[in-house]
């Protein structure tokens, strides 16, 4: 059991977190309401190519993404352990079983283990940058959302 002072501190920290969350969402809604819907329309004296070029490189603010994601019904269903192994499976795939024998016999020999360590380091850096993006833009959509928020519509993957 927690002591009464520890329980009070815990309750105060929860209240502080809830107040902070409410403040963040208020600022998101304020910014979301200031977005000009006319920015998507073609301006006067704007040529066809200039309009579409502007539209293709137009980014979506992170605040808009947060505001749109606020009412979604998606929930986190995978735990950390499951996500780690999904990521490892996606990174390694089946190529490790097909190509490692050829690489060892033709190119690297016993140094293939060093090659695996170097590749693992590169994969770790990719995973760290991906986790940084996920913490900056914590909404559903993954790479699609990150590309839209940072590089604009032209770079987002079409489905």
From TrEMBL:
Q: Does the keyword Transmembrane helix apply?
A: yes
Q: Does the keyword Membrane apply?
A: yes
Subcellular location, principal: membrane
Q: Name one GO cellular component term.
A: membrane
Its record classes its membrane topology as:
Multi-pass membrane protein
Residues crossing the lipid bilayer are 80-99, 111-130
Pfam families, alphabetized: AA_permease_2 (PF13520)
Single GO term (MF): amino acid transmembrane transporter activity
User: What is the designated name of this protein?
Assistant: Amino acid permease/ SLC12A domain-containing protein
Query: What organism does this protein naturally occur in?
Result: Rhizopus delemar
